Amino acid sequence: MVESVNAARSIIGVTGPDHGGLAAWWFTKLAVWRAGGRARRITPKRPCHVRELDGLILGGGADVAPDLYGAESLPQPEEITRGEVGLFRRGLALLAFPLMFLIRRLLTTRNPGLNIDRDKLEQNVLRGALDRNLPILGICRGAQLLNVTMGGTLHQHLTGFYQESPNIRSLLPRKQIMVEPDSCLARILGCATCGVNALHDQAVDRLGEAVRIVAREPNGVVQAVELTTKPFVVGVQWHPEYLPHHRRQQRLFQSLVDAARQPRP
Length: 265
Prior knowledge:
alpha/beta
């Protein structure tokens, strides 16, 4: 009985690195399962043909290689804002979400370098998914890769955007964004302003072909994009997989799985 139920679930590919990224994978797998889908992990050493998928999630992780958008790698700036979050808020995050905090720290291996094999794999899978009109959700790096694949560029560092206010890095939804009212994202989230978490160091700069900005921070940093030529291709800068208790964020996965069940042109 369990096998027949699982067989009926839409297959959602979830990209990630070969090493590390286990926290994001398990939280994303849970979110997809709650939405009625079945997640399939995709990494450079564990590829998957797009014909086997009903939908695609481009996961977060290492920075997208700058040569993919015609830029040179810039040196890391001095950390001005990352450490400005107070001890009280750090303690609150630890107390409120001990399981998520510990899993992320224990299972996620942060790789500050580039992952060329992953870039190549994800771009190939993304292009195949676009050709087949699969529903696609890009998360953090995934949203950035979507823009780069469509011919856009990225801000390699965001320090200059946070001179007057700290750059929040938190699993908690402490960052406020403004959502475009006539967007697919607005219909999913059901809000004009929304609280999200933040773990990113880069963001979309020049837009790629058919890419539209659908959410920003008050300082202008892009927080979400969509493709205007596809029925469901959304990229968000935050990590909805780490907010399983927020119904609005779960709707992103629910909408993706619902779209994966629909017949494709």
